[in-house]
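Newbie here. three chains, one complex. Structure please?
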Amino acid sequence: MHKTRRKVRLGEAAGYILTLLIALTVIVPILWLLVSSFKTDVGVIKFPPRFFPEEWTLHQYLYVGDSIPVFEMTKNTVIFAGGVTVISLLFDSMAGYAFARMHFKGSKLLFSIILLTMMVPFQIIMTPLYIEVYKFNLLDTYLGLILPRATSAFGIYMMSSFFAGLPKSLEESGRIDGMSEFRIFRSIMLPLCKPALVSLGIYHFMNNWNDLLYPLMLTSSQSKRTLSAGLAVLVGNKVIKYGPTLAAAMISLTPLLLLYIFCQKYFIEGIAASGMKE
Amino acid sequence: MVKSIRKRKKYTAHNQKSAYLFIAPSMVILSVFVFIPLIASFVISITDMNIFMKDVHFTGIQNFIRLFSDDRVINATFNSLYFTLLEVPLQVGLALLLTVSLAKNNRYCKLLRSVYYLPFVCSMTAIGIVWSMLLDPNMGLFAYWLKSVGVETVSFLKDPQLAMPTVIAVTAWKGFGYTLTLLAAAVLNISQSLYEAAQMDGAGSFQKFIHITVPGIWPTISFCIVTTTIGAMQMFDQAYVMTQGGPLNKTETVVQYIYDRGFQTAPYDLGYASAISVYLFVIVAVMTFVLRKVILNRGEDADA
Amino acid sequence: MRKKVLSVLLGTAMCMSLLSGCGNGGGNQTAQSDDLAGAAEDTAVSESEEESREGQDETASGEKTTLEFWNVFTGSDGDILRQIVDNYNKTNTDNIEIQMDIMPNDQLQQKLPAAIATGTAPDLVLFGVENIAPYVSNDSLEDISDFWETTGADKDNILENVLELSHVDGKLYGAPMQYNVSYLYWNKDLFSAAGLDPEKAPATLDELAEYAEKLTDPSKNQFGLALPTNATYMQFLWANGGDADDPETNTNLLDSEENIKTLEWLQDLTVNKKVSPENITGAEADTMLQAGQIAMYMSGPWQINGLREQGINFGIAPCVAGSAGAFSPAGGCSYVIPKGTEESQKLAAYKFMQYWLTDDILKEWSQKNGFPVWSKTLMEDPEIQNDEVLSSISEATEIGRSYNLGYSLASQIDNDVMIPMFEKVMTGAASPEDALKEASAGMDKILAQ
């Protein structure tokens, strides 16, 4: 008895040490990014390197602010990433629900086909997609940016996995009450998957926020350009300017970090508190 | 988890119809913006079209013949598989291991799970730049630290043998927090009574992990494995930012080679690039199919 | 016939996309089944795009002309270009407004061809002269041979070799924007510290090797000569009388004694003497040069601003000479007009090109960026002649030589043959003989196309 307890203690201690060490490998590079964005041009590439700036400066941020319309681009990114997230959450959860909870002809085949679309690297369909969006007269519009992303195989797959785990009894009661399928979905099922939705929502928002190639392809003027695509301009063609590059990385990261800090409560706790327990 | 649900197979035509309505929006969007471009690129793969899209001729299977005798396709396929076979187990395995310590809802665990999620929030471009700067053997902080404690200079991304493992490590570093969040959520949903019963039977923590935790979250694990694998086979950004496929093409993946042929090297042979895409597409589809078969079977076994 | 079948097929795919779409097609639905391959429908500028171009009403009133202008000038030279364009917008009397859109070179190369094919291309593009030939061979740039006559700009005031870079088969496709070769930069402080004369750069291959060895000090993380592996070193091959290929006759010139000798010398420098950081990229070499860790480095004029900002005490010299003399690969950027640009837009673009070619602007560009001058009148300008950097760089520019510029196979030769060959030699992955043999076989394959 005594022995096993000690073993447990040892195991726990090892767990703490391991988890803290891993946390360190995560925090150090990100902290380095944060503090290095306040270094001077000389400080960033100084050898021998130092972790903290010798001289703190806002110069890099000011430079970024001077070079590109940060606020307008942020607005575009919010509209693009936000639009995609909202619409995609609705469509993904609807389709995921149907695949997980409803039996219909061809559902297996269709689901496999949807999975197949996950296997297409964007580089492959990029050029045909450009021509298509052009044919729809949607180049350089918000709609043209949002529509092709308004659903995703990943989201459908994820939502259907989630719905599959919910107890069947849930919609039975709704059916007995004579509710329509859509009402069952909306008033019984959807509220239960709030945590999954938040988690998928963050995923979509982040991916689209950080995406570079796609928004760059489908916008042809600076006024519709998104933040990450706009910031790519700073990196430099022949000579990389590290200072502004790091500041730019921080600028595009900060809103996501804030969003994440704000939302993490919902989904890290949320999923556990959901109705999945029986 | 008590399985007391009777399967009802009485579905009316009405149910069928509403099911189709539920999937309609997604199907339409996927058809228009993924399938049609995909079919277009299948068609392009049997032509000699370049990105200027002028003077296009049918070439039949010529692009495919060329593909199988192209050393760089073989090299890139090897690299993609190498990457996938190491990266997926590393990312999912690490996350799974961490659930042992972190799948609890106390403050410490929640804080650490949030911390681990941080890299996932960052763009691959930012991560790539940060790590290349830190790991640079001549100017980087990590190399400098290593040197000052007496470790011989390690070239990480510059060494032909170490470059791919480094890219793998950075990728797993970026993604494991996300996998962990999904897995931990699933673990927290396993009924405590199962653990209590096992405890009474005298099961140790390792046994509990293998016999209760893993089967209990198997659907989530399989979801993570499948999606991470698909993502890994399409690896592009990491190498594009950190190594540009080098040194000596040791980190050049299939997607990168596609990109190089189609958009970086004149004559910008979109036909050939599309042929390689078709080839990649088939590989990934087969892999996913096999993986899902294996994993799902395993899952059912574990469930029973 | 075959082509027709294909266009029908592709067209059908696109039509399907319309039918299954939600009818967002807008006004030009009828044109959609047109052959995708030849689609140069410049009429089909999307409505939304027109809205987004603020104040664009050239068709209505015929007064204001808005030029869409794409370029690859990311980084600090883009700031200077932006100032010049902004100033042009404010001061020009032709009511032309230029809307500039900067994007990284890779993205430009992805977007521009698709944009030209769909008629959504900008009116003016600025990119590297090495791109002109592939675009021309795909009929994607406007012939602007009438530029001199139309604008009255003085063709004879521009150096012949600079102008040549914008020509393909005797026709003009671009207006020169900047011209440069590769230079030898050296860090004077590191020279002094190593006991070398800080005012004297190496002039020959032997001297270069000797200095590089002396200037390398691993304990200080200091390297004598940076040799990035993602680059080509024509200056070395040429110096010993070797070459890669002859674009005029499609001849492979790789397999020669001279080249073997050069590659052996290069391998000795990198593998045995370790004068360069291992497997370094160009961008990393730039940074190390700016950080004072590299004593010598061959690169273009874009280094100058960075070195000035970092306070490095540097000199600029011509590339070193071998038994056959000294040469340096030339490069530059030109303004081009994508195929299908309307005549009125084209004329407005001419106006801006002409503006760029005035001595005032060329002078501003050279002085702020350190690029050599190539306007004959400007070369006589006392201010330019007294500028230390500009005068040494202009002198070092004289040994410029074209390496496959204007050759449509150039990027393939570089990416598939030359860069891998140099990489293998410099990392020691292959012996110079083997690397050269393999490269020569690869070259044969490409030239046979």
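Moderator note: The CA atoms of residues 194 and 214 of chain C lie 7 Å apart. The two ends of chain C are 23 Å apart (CA to CA). Thread marked as resolved.
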